[in-house]
Amino acid sequence: MARCEGKNRDGDQCKRGVRGDTRFCHVHEPEKDQAAGNEDDVAAEDLELLDLAPILLAGVMAVGVMLLLRGFGKW
What we know:
Elements: H1 30-46, H2 49-71
C-alpha cells in the first residue's frame, strides 16, 4: 500500500495509506481541506456588525414596546 503524501503538524510525512485513486489519506485529501477552509472563511466574512444591526434594532424595539405597555399597566 502506498503512503500518503500529506504532512502532519511536525512536518513529517503522514504514515497512513492512500485512499482510492488519490495520493492522500482521508485526513489529507486536498478537496476536503479546501472545502472546509472555504466554509470557515465565508462564515467569518458573513458575520459583521452591519449584519447584526437589524437583529439588535429589533431587540431594542421589543424591549421598548414591553416597557411602554408596562407603563400603561397592560403588561
